[in-house]
Each structure stands twice: as structure tokens, then as C-alpha cells.
Amino acid sequence: MIYDESRFRIDLFFAADLLLQQAAINDPYLPESSSDVSFMQSLSGSWSGVESNNGPDSNSASLYGISMLSFGESGLHSQWSANDESNGKIYQLNWTRDYRGHAWSVGLIQPQGSFSNFLASPYLYGLEYRSSNNSRTDNRYQQGTSLEINMPVRGRVEIHRDGRLLFSQMLEAGNQLLDTSTLPGGAYELEIRTFDENGRSLAEQRRFFVKDSLLPAPGEWRWTLQAGQPAQLVEADLLPEQGDDYFLQAGVSRRLFEDTGLFVTTATSQKELVLELGARWISEYLELSPSVLKSRDGTNGHRIHALLKTPYFTLSASDTQLTPKNATNGDSDNYALLGTGYSSRDASLNTALFGGQVSLRYSKQDSGIYVSSLDLPTAPEISAATRLTTLEFRRDLFRSRRWLGEMTLSHSDADGERLTAASFRFYYRGDNWSHSATLRGDSNPSEYGGTRLGFNSSWQDGDRLPLDLSQQFSGEVSESNHYLASNTRLAGRRGAISSTLDYRVQDTTGQRAFNYLGNFNTTLMTDGNHFAWGGEKTADSALLVDIEGSPDQDFEILVNGARRGYAKGGERSAISLPAFQTYEISLRPLAEGFYDYRELQDKITLYPGNVASASYQIKQLILVLGRLMHNGKPVPHKKITIGEYAAITDEFGVFQLEMYGNPRKLQVPPVIWGDCKVPLPEQSAGQHWVNLGDIELANGICPDEHKHYIQY
């Protein structure tokens, strides 16, 4: 304590241990749902195929649906699909709840909470209870493992899971990393199929895919418990067939130190018992994630992932191996926890060099799949390579606000098959149009190799249209072939659709191929009182925006300040939003003019299947201007009334007021001055305003007097 008698002041100082500690986040969980009973049906479809004069036509299409009947934070959820190769399937049908860090599901489920790098999540008739970060507001993150494949020639890749198409893309020749950001979380097998430009199958291979878990929050446990009977898909059945075996898995993780976490998982069935121990250690420059596995039948496994980040380079490497005691398992009646053995290694190095970026990648799988078709005697005998090495160098040649020039040099090695390529790309970006030209050459000795010159022109609507429209045209010519392609994407109130068309001609042989890819999505929803359908993007919750007034006018829906869709006046529109978030909703007119509206709902919190509502009463405003005169002199600071609207003149006699209506159709009533009516002169009007001009009080008519003008 310090006393200053000159200022009559006392300063008190307290030790830090005596001060009250206040948490940075008072409540790390989302509030209750803003929705009661609601229903959502999300629909998305994908198609992919080729038509060629040098082989059989092929195509693949699938329809995927998510049905959710929601009761606040709980709900009945179902996932189903249908495709052109098999009957419809139901993959999940369960009652689920995910609230304040606790999640549970019962019914037909595919467990989501797993800390294992080896155990796949089966279809399960049973129960899952786990900790969850979904409803937390302070931390949620998932990381997916990388998938790299070799494309001997330029063509198409498809990623399938359980017979349905998840991802499709056209790729250049060489070793290619696939985009896994849109793949769902969990641990499961993927089927990767590759095709050349004419649709001939190159390879099919299966990869085990895992989305890793990060460290738990300090001082908190993460756990998972799954119990039930495993099931498997049957071609002729709608629901997965329930097995005679049982499945039980439990896992727990804890942050032991600030930078170290421990993960323990155990699983059992009638014949097997597995124990897995894993850890994660993070430092400023190095990250390590090792895990080891041991089963009762003698199967061993290990996985280690390392990431080294320095100011000069980034190095990552991983090694995974699962070695079964017996190469085959003759007991097919029981569910296999681990399946067959496998091994894989991969490493990548990224660094800056000569003003650009150098990337060196290496991957090795235990086996590749050989594919050959007797119907295509001219098809090259190509197998999926097991050892891939890639060296790539990228550098900007020049860069400005509108222009960009870059070059890429790469060398790929796939089991001794080498491919060297160089490309130069020049890019111009305008307000709506963007153009680029690419010159590429490679050492591929086939008709797909050589030197190629390509162009690309794309157009985006920007703010010209209320919907989101983009169109891209591309083409390429080489010594032996040429192609034209188009990519279109349209997203609006009723959903989104995109299409890719690719037409290729080989000049030397006359072979022609037409590739087509596409997808669409839309959502049907109701909050129990109102129905709507649409949404630019597919999500697991939604907002219904009801606008009363301003018919046929377009309004942007702003979610947390960013545009998420648009709505029309006088109609009800649907905006799809991700669940487990709290949103601030606002409205912004797209048309010019003035509007009067008041938001009835500022904040909403959404959980899976929730459909919240926001209503707006919007009226178009007309700005009315005029000047009050008496015998040619301004009348200042006087109140006048025009219909039900009132205004006060300023020191120059000028007044301004807002009226509801259309300026082209608005009939402005006479000015009321006390008990007198002052007729209006000839009016001039614009799109959003009306000018009454000079209003002369001397021309006013007072019915209670014998005078035909106002004495002022």
C-alpha cells in the first residue's frame, strides 16, 4: 500500500496468487439449438463417363442422400445412395445426439470416433458413445492422410467408397497428389480407379484412408466406446446384413504434457483381441506421431509420422506396416478386425530455391494391381506402380496485379518408368474474364506425349447476377491430337450444378473421345410450419428466410458478414449452413433504392438437421423532396403533413421525408397546413425519388374560411 498525502490517494497492490482468475472463454460450448422440430433431405448426385469410337462406352453415376429429422440437439439420421451398378443402399439409420462435448448414436451406425491408425470402422448395429469437439467453440480440426497415384498417361481418376463415387478429376501424366479435403472423416478403405482419355481402364487399387486426431484440449479426456454386431453390404439387400460376430472397441486419449499426448485403443471380437498404443509430440519445428499395435493372434503393426519444419525447408515422412502372423485367414464367418497385412512409406521435401519452390516426393506401397482387358487388344499393359518418385520445381517468371507468368519443371519415376515435363503458363486476370496460355512438353514416347499448347478462358459473374455463375473454356493442340473442354457451374436459390465436357481427337488415328463429368446438389427442408427447397451448397443444417414485401426484389443473405446466398422479396428461400455453429444473420438489398426493414432474429445456433427461420418485413422507401414557400419566400422551421407522413422544413424551407410505394405509381396527396390543403405543383420523379418542387402556401384552400389562400 502506498499513500500519497499531497493528492490524498492510496494505491493498493495485490500479489498475483491472490487475484481472481477469469477464464478466457466462459462457456466453450455452443448454446441450445434455435430450432425445434425440423426435417432436411439433402440430395447430391455425381456422374462420370466417356464415349469413344475406339472402345466401349462407359459411365458411372450415383445419387447420395442424407435424411435428418431433428428435435433440437437430437435427431433421427439416415444416409442412403443409389447408383447405376447396384440397388439402393441404406448406410446409416440411427438416433443421434451431439451436445456439450458428448455424442452418442444408436442404431445402424458407422462409428466416427476412433484413435486407431489400423482399425477400420465397420457398419455396426449397435451403440457409440464418445467425446466430441463438434459443439465446442474453441477447437475443432481434422487432418487427412495424403493419397498419391501415378498416371502413366493423361486421363481420369475416380475415388469410390462402398461402390459409390466420391471424387472424380482429370489429371496430367505423372505422379499426382489427390485432393482429400472433401472426403469424410474416419478410417476406411478407398477404391481408386484410373482411366486414360478414351476411358480405357489403367489400374484399380485399394488404399486405407485415415483422418488423424490431434491432441486433446489441456486437462480434458477424449474417449470413445463402440459396441454392437458388425454388418456388411449385400448386393440384393437394402440394409447391411447383420453378422453373427460382435464388435467392441474402446479408446481414450489424454494430453500428458503441454506438447505430448497419449492415445490407447483396444478392440475385440469373438476370435481377436487388439491393443494399440499411440502418442503425439509437437515442438516448434518437429512433430512426431508414433503408434504400435499388438493382437492376440500374433499380428504386429507400427506407424510413425514425422514432420520437420525449418525456416529453410519442410520435411515429412511416414512409415506404416501391418504384419499378420498368418498370411491367410480361412475363418470367413467372423469379422476380421485387421484384415490382411500391408506396408507403405512416403516422404516429401519442400524448400525455396532460385526464387521458386522445389518439391521432392517419394512413396512406396506393398503391391500394385495389374489391369488388362481382353476386349481392348490395343490397350497398353499398365499396372499400378508401387514405387513413385517425383521432383518438381515451380517459379514465378513475373507477377503484377493483372499478369502472372510461371514455369514448372518436373521429373517422375514410377518403377523405373520415367517422365520429364516442362510447362510455361501466362495468366491475365480481369474483372470478370480471366485468360491463360500454357506451353507444355514431356518425354512421353506415346501419342499422349510431346509438345502441347493450351489456352483457358474463364468468366465469373461477380456482382452482376444474384446467383453464382462461372464458365470456363479450354483447348489444346499438339502434333498428334487436340481437344476442347467446357466447365460450367451454376449456383442459386434452388441448388447448384456443375458440368465438365471434354472432347478429344487423335489426328493420326482418327480416334475420338468425349469425357463428361458433373454433379449437382439441392436440399428439401421444413421447420414444421413452412417448406422450402434449394441452397447453393449442401450442408447439414439450414436457414429459412421469409421476406414479406418488395416482391421480385433480390436480397443478399449475409451470414457473419459474408454472402451465403440470396432471396427474393415476397418468397421463402433456403440457405444451407454447416451445423455446430452460431450465426449472425443480416440482409442486404441487391437492387438500388431505399428499403425499410427490421430484423426479427439476429442470432441462430444450428445442430445437424436443424432448420431455423428468419422473417423480414421489407417496404420500399421513396425519398420525397420539396420546398415550402409563401409569396415567393421560404417558410422555415414549420411542420407540414402529406398524407400520413410529416416533416419539418429547415431554415431554407426545404423538407425531406420518406414514403412507402413505387415512385412511378405514387400519387402524393396535397400538403396539409393546419386545416388547409395546399395543392401540389407538377411533380418530377426518378427511380427512387419524387421532387414536389416549390409548394406555395398562398394557393392553399381553407374550408373553414371564406378565403382561398392562407394568411402567413
UniProtKB/TrEMBL annotation:
Tell me the ranges covered by the Pilus assembly protein E-set like domain, including all copies: 145-209
Q: Which domain of life is it from?
A: Bacteria
Residues in the signal sequence: none
Residue ranges of every copy of the Pilus assembly protein C-terminal domain listed in the record:
606-695
Q: Which UniProt keywords apply?
A: Signal
InterPro entries for this protein: Pilus_assem_C, Pilus_assem_E-set-like_dom
In Swiss-Prot or TrEMBL terms, this protein is called Outer membrane usher protein FimD/PapC
| Organism of provenance | Microbulbifer thermotolerans
